[in-house]
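Thread: "does anyone have the structure for this chain?"

Original post by V.I.:
We have the sequence but no experimental structure in hand. Need at least a predicted one for the grant figures.
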Amino acid sequence: MSENPAPQVLAPDADAATSETPAAPHPWADLPAEQFSLLRLAPLPVDRETGPRPLRFVQLGRVERHAKDLSLLRLTIQVPGQRLHRQNNLLEVWADHQRKEVRFGPDKGLSVDPANRGLGRFLMAQGIAWARKQYAHYQVEGGALPTKDNFNEAARARRDHALKAQGFTIEYSDPLQLKPFYSAPRVSSLHGDWQAEKVQIIELLDAAAMLQQADQTLQEQDVKLRKLEDRIERLKREDSGLRFTITCLVAFSLFQAGLLIWIATR
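Reply from O.Q.:
Generated one for you, tokens below.
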């Protein structure tokens, strides 16, 4: 995973593991988002690994379900103009009420795009805050982290830093640090904060105010542009008049010079 842990979302039981028939997907496996918010990704300096990081706006989708045995929170990030894999920009938090345990997913890990913008930590903070509100006494199911980031030192450092900042413990079972494991004792030990200077939640009224301000700024710029165009046209007309005057003066000077030469030679 890029920035956050990726445990198995639903651990199959022993009978299912030995069966040749694959388990049916959970009814909540493909729930679409029902609530939406606007996120502002602050402009950041160009990063040597991930490239330019300009100002961007993305959409946060949220859906949750509750039942006697399970509860689910699913968060998704939609980026304008991009079509991402369904497992990208997705965080799931499953609360098992029978085992009193919380699991973070998806099972292939949290992959965030655009990377290195604080979105991974933001999603984890939202999931942790949701779990702490009702299931703070539940245990956290740890597990192995995907190894795709282990061959990129910068990506691995960002991932481990983000997880440790959220309260997880990262351990490596080998000297080369190729097999990372994350763990945490209970949900109450995790931290639901993120780098607010990088990712900001824009409320509906704030978004409307931003659009209104942008429209007003465009109108003001349009007025200034028209004034500049009128001034340029006026200067062009004045320039044409000056050119004509200069041409006439040059012609008259040449005529006078020719006339004086003619008189002198006569």
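V.I.: this helps a lot. The first helix runs from residue 14 to 18.
O.Q.: and DSSP finds four helices and twelve strands in the chain.
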